[in-house]
Structures are given as C-alpha cells and as structure tokens.
Design brief:
Keywords (chain B): Ion transport, Membrane, Transmembrane, Transmembrane helix, Transport, Vacuole, Zinc, Zinc transport
GO molecular function (chain B): zinc ion transmembrane transporter activity
Order of helices and strands of chain B: EEHHHHEEHHHHEEHE
Oligomer: heterodimer
CATH architecture of the largest domain in chain A: Up-down Bundle
CATH superfamily of the largest domain in chain A: Cation efflux protein transmembrane domain
CATH architecture of one domain in chain B: Up-down Bundle
Largest sheet of chain A: 3 strands, mixed
Family (chain B): Belongs to the cation diffusion facilitator (CDF) transporter (TC 2.A.4) family. SLC30A subfamily.
Shape of chain A: elongated
Radius of gyration of chain A: 25 Å
Structural class of chain A: mainly alpha
Distance between the termini of chain B: 31 Å
Helix content of chain A: 40-55%
Distance between the termini of chain A: 30 Å
Strand order of the largest sheet of chain A: 3-4-5
Helix content of chain B: 40-55%
CATH class of one domain in chain B: Mainly Alpha
Number of strands of chain A: 5
Largest sheet of chain B: 3 strands, mixed
Membrane topology (chain B): Multi-pass membrane protein
Main location (chain B): membrane
CATH topology of one domain in chain B: Alpha-lytic protease prodomain-like
CATH topology of the largest domain in chain A: Alpha-lytic protease prodomain-like
Strand order of the largest sheet of chain B: 5-6-7
Amino acid sequence: MDTPTAKVAWNANYGVVSSGDRRLAFSRQLSSNATANTPRLARSDSSITMPMPPLYQGPKPSRKLLRLATASRPMRRLALLLALNVAYSATELAIGLFTGRVGLVSDAFHLTFGCGLLTFSLFAMAASRTKPDNMYTYGYKRLEVLAAFTNAVFLLFLSFSLAVEALHAFMQDESEHKHYLIVSAVTNLSVNLLGVWFFRSYARVNIVYRNAEDMNYHSVCLHVLADSIRSAGLILASWFLSLGIENAEVLCLGIVSVAVFMLVLPLFKAAGNILLQIAPGNVPPSAFAKCSRQITACEDVSEVWQGRFWELVPGQAVGSLSIRVKSGADDQAVLEYAHGLYQDLGIQDLTVQTDES
Amino acid sequence: MESHHSSHPQIAEVKMDIASSASGAAGNKVCRGAACDFSDSSNTSKDAKERSASMRKLIIAVILCIIFMTVEVVGGIKANSLAILTDAAHLLSDVAAFAISLFSLWAAGWEATPQQSYGFFRIEILGALVSIQLIWLLAGILVYEAIVRLINESGEVQGSLMFAVSAFGLFVNIIMAVMLGHDHGHGHGHGHGHGHGHSHDHSHGDSNDDHSHHEEQEQGHVHRHEHSHGSSITVTTVNHHNHPSTGQHHDVEESLLKHEDGCEGTQSAAKAAKKPRRNINVHSAYLHVLGDSIQSVGVMIGGAVIWYKPEWKIIDLICTLIFSVVVLFTTIRMLRNILEVLMESTPREIDATRLERGLCEMEGVVAVHELHIWAITVGKVLLACHVTIAREADADQILDKVIGYIKTEYNISHVTIQIERE
C-alpha cells in the first residue's frame, strides 16, 4: 500500500517513531536482498540515527518465474545444496541397485524425498517474488509459508517412520550392522552439515518470524539439521553395536525420532497457524481491543464490529472492519482515523466499511 | 417498493425495505455475532448435520478398516509372511488417513475465537493437504518396495501369495470406496457438497423463518434467496420456472467441489443432480482408498507375472511405477484446489474482471481498487475492496447497491466495501 500519511510518524520498519506511542514500536528486519553483508541486530539499531536505505523493490516483473540470474544468496546456497543432494542420492541409488544392497536403496529414497522438498522450497523462494496478478491478488508470498509447512509435515512423517524403524529393530532383534551404510552415513552427514552451516543463522528451534523468507529458510535449516541428526544417530548406533551394547540401534533411532519431532513442532505450529488465518502474532490481543475502543470513543461512531485480522505472511497483516457512523457525519475522517490507528499496529491492508445508521 | 429484472429472464426480484426505524438493525449489511455467517445458528445446524453425516461415514470406514487390518495381521503372523504384514501396514495408513479426515471434520466445527476470527474452517483444507501428502508418501514407499523385490534375487517373493494378498486388499478397498463415495439422493442433510454458497444473512428474530425446511429435489430445483434482517420482508429469487414464488424458503444446493461456475443457478441445477457432492475431507479419504485400490491392481498384476514367469520381475517394477503415477494424477485436481485456497487466490468459479467491470458500470462509482476475493474453504468466499465514488453521491445507497449486486450475482455473502470519495 502507499506510504501512510503521518498523523503519527510511522516508519515501515520500526513502527511508531519519534513522539508516538513507543509501546507500539517494533523492529523489522529488511529482507536479505537489501542488506547483503551485515546482519542487522535489532537492538543496536536506533530509529533516530540514519535514514533507512530504500527498500529493494524486487526484480522487474518478468514472465519467467525462476529468474536465476538475480537469485539471492540463500537461494544460490540452497541450489548448491540441492545439487549436492541430488548427485549424492543418484549415485547411492545406482550403487545400491547394481550391488543389490537394500540399505543403500532405502537411504537413497529418503534422500530423494528430501530433494523433492528442497526443490519445492527453492521454487517457493523464486516464485514468491512475482508481483500480484489478477488470480493471486495477494501475491505469491504465501508459497514460502506453504513450503515451510510441507517441510514440517514431511519431517514429522520422518520422525514417525524412524520410530517405526526403531520398533521394527526392537522386534526383529537383528544386530547385524551393515558396514557400507557407515560410509554413506558419513557422506550424508558432511553434506547436511554443510547445509546447516549455510543457514546457520536459522539453526534454532524457536524463531521470531519477521517476513516470509524467514519461515522458508528456517524450514530448510531444520530439514538439513534433522537429516544430519539421523545420520549421526546411525553412525552412533553402529559404533555402539561394535562396542557390544545391546539394542543400540533401537535406542539411537528412538532418540533421533523424538529429537526430530521436538525440533519440528514449533515450525509446524507456526506455519499451520498462518495458513489457518490466525490473528497477527506480533500484536497482542489487547491492542486490538484498545483500537476498537478508541474508534468507538469517537463521537461520530456508534458501533464497531466484525474486526477480522489475519496474517498473509509473517510481517504482513490484513484486516477488515465494519463501523457504524452516525448519519450526517464525515465518514472519510472516521475512515482515515481508523486507518491511522491500525497502521500503528502494523496492519497496512485494511478495508473499513462505514455504514450510516 | 422497487422491483427490477436482473439478467436472468426467469428471475423476478422483489425487495421491500421497511423504513429503518428499528434500532440500528437496518438493511441487509448487518451481520450479528462475532463471526457472522460463518457460525450463525442456521448455518451451524446445517453444517453440523452435514458434518455428522460425513463423520458417520468415516467412522464406519475406520471400523471396517481396523477389522480387516487385524484379520491380516493375525494371518500374517500365523503364516509368518512379510507380504501380508506389509499389506496390513498399508491398511494402517488408510486408518491414519481416515483419522486425519475425522479430526479435520470435527475441528472445523469449533467456534471462532478472537484469535481465529474466521473460525476453524481452514482445518479441513490443511487436513486434506496432509492426507494428500500421505498419499504421495505411500506411493513412494510402494515404488521402494517394488525395487526391493527386484533386488532380492534370492527368490523370496512368492507370486501367488502376493496375488492373493493384494486381491484381498483390493476387495477391502472397493468396499470402502463404494461406501465413501456413495452419494445419497434422498433425505435431509446427506451428501451435501460441503460449503454451499449461502447467500442469506440469517435473521434471528424473523418469524417467517423456517430454515429447518430442507428439501432436496433431484429434478434440480435450485433456489437462491436472500432475506433481510429484522424488519424487512423476505425476498425470494426464483431461478427455476416451475417453482411457485411465494414466501417459501428453500435452501441452496450447489455442488461446489466439482463445478466451476458456482454463480449460475441453472447450470448448477443440472449438475447438482449428477455430480456427487462430497465434503472435501470425505473426498480426500475417498481418494486415498481409490489410490490404494489402483495400487492393489498394480501389485496383483505384478504378483501374477511373478507367479507365472518369475524371470520377468522387471515388469512388476514397471507396473508399480505406472500405477503410482496414475495415483498421483488422481490427486492433482484436489491438490490444485487446496493450493489455490491456501494461497488466498480468487476462486475459479468467480470471474474477478467481470465483477470489477460490473461494479464500475454502476452509477456513482468512479473506480474500484484493491479488490481481493478469497475463500476460507472451498465453499465460503469473501470479498474486500475499495470503491471510489463521485463526490455528490449517496454513500449508503451505493453501498447497498454494491453489496446487493455482489450477493445476487456472485453469491458471495461476506463482503467488506470501503467507500472513498474522490
């Protein structure tokens, strides 16, 4: 939307600045396109000092969705990771088929699913920069949230399947460990650790999501992290088995399964909530009640109802509101006042319906 | 009193508004309650009836599945055969899919909260998405198993056993597919397509209301009606010529999952009689079962091949691959619907350019911008836009006209219009 007319000085990245209500201020990180090298630490920034650099508007709209030439750095890193993974799983599948080793084939299948997910994340990163069109009036940014959600769902499936494997190992009680799997596990671990290093700023369980890409990067990081935990678990299990510890495989697989589950659950909930049209997370519910009270307190307004707010992507909130205005009053002034109030909270896309009673 | 003819020759629309002396509650723009027509009483009772019918179907399917699964597990342990146990695991995945659908159905009926101001209808869509991802996962697992069968050159695979087990699995799946896919052409509240485009605002105090009067007539009477809140007289929009246009209320039936032009009543009248109307969760469970039966057919063919000519094992793998691809194709349409809803895109059945042009052609309207049309779930559509009007025009009257136009033409019930003067 267009820049807000300053009733209160408002900045797109810091919320209310100067003499406004500082409690409504927030810090928003620019997308990585604008600040290439220095990570912005929110606390050391101050809204008093420098004028913000102009926001990167994104590449000019072109027909192709991929636009590899202007890929951002995380996209390039993800593409590299994806290429490594694809090459690795292809060789593993080929070797497994020719030498007839089932373990290698199953590992290759795990990796292929992972590659598919990473491809979808990469596609989401590329496609989300497309400008909104007639069919997708809100743009394509939701794809990143969808990619994050898909990643989270498959990681949950992975943890369930690891639990099933542990159960299987427990019942079959086969303690023969396959040596060739160690080599593949070590290679897998190193590739995934490289991926974790690429996305190291997202290697946490609970992250505050400031914009759409945050969720996607976080999901990619969790994916490679979960894969590396699984490989590490396999290596550990075979080491314990060689030490003679009974049921090592069951233990390690069980621990890995629980670990992956706990790792993924917050991302799953956050992405799921956004897809469920939950109210914006960075605004406390009391703020909404306060705004609605402030509007009702206007002498021209008799009633405010049907305030619905939801987040398109983390950081971009949309809302709709209905106001009943007393007849004869200036509804444009009420409109501007309401818009100003909600812009303080960070809700830019607001549609306000004013009925005259 | 004003009456006008809309573009459909058979429609006669009569609208009468008693002067709004009733306190505050004037016009048909008003929706009472926190979540308006997403959870007002008539809708919830209809939704609840349809939801409980779907849940009943799914519960029966789950019970059948569990019975068959225990039979297979017992048989597999007794015969010490991995193939039978694997098939039991597939049935377990069916149970998981049904459990997801049941949960989504149940959760979609939760009351809206201030945090979830639109209610929980999206949970259906998310549940269907997870279900479809499960289908994809299982297709991959089946391909993996076929490869393993190929690699195990030691001939552990018995073609006859494979054939028998997959035939049994096919039989079970067909029973469940019939049960889930069977649309009832009779009675109340069965087989409603989920998410009718309800175009009425429920009036709580209206004594003429007899919404409990459901009638499903297979000749395809489709009626759209709207009535205003409180003090107004009800409006009946008649779409089918042999229905008496008195103050009778009939509910809308549209098969929304499968037909692409939800606002044209006559076409939906024709289609409503033919297309099965299914809740999206029941439909995804049905897809799951259908996919399983397709794959059972593939495994049966592979088993028969291995039985007769064990050296042609590669055919088993090729068969499985082909049938997995077929299964994936059956899910594509539903996946596309789900993705479009989750991306907040304009629903396919609504032509946004025509709507915008229609709004611009109204007198007093200068421009329309920031038009957003999106769906909360497959049947419930919302609209928000900014309308710029001429300086001297009457905002309230234009608001009424715009909302009325959108509601009658496009059947979008939840509309928020911001009127701006230029």
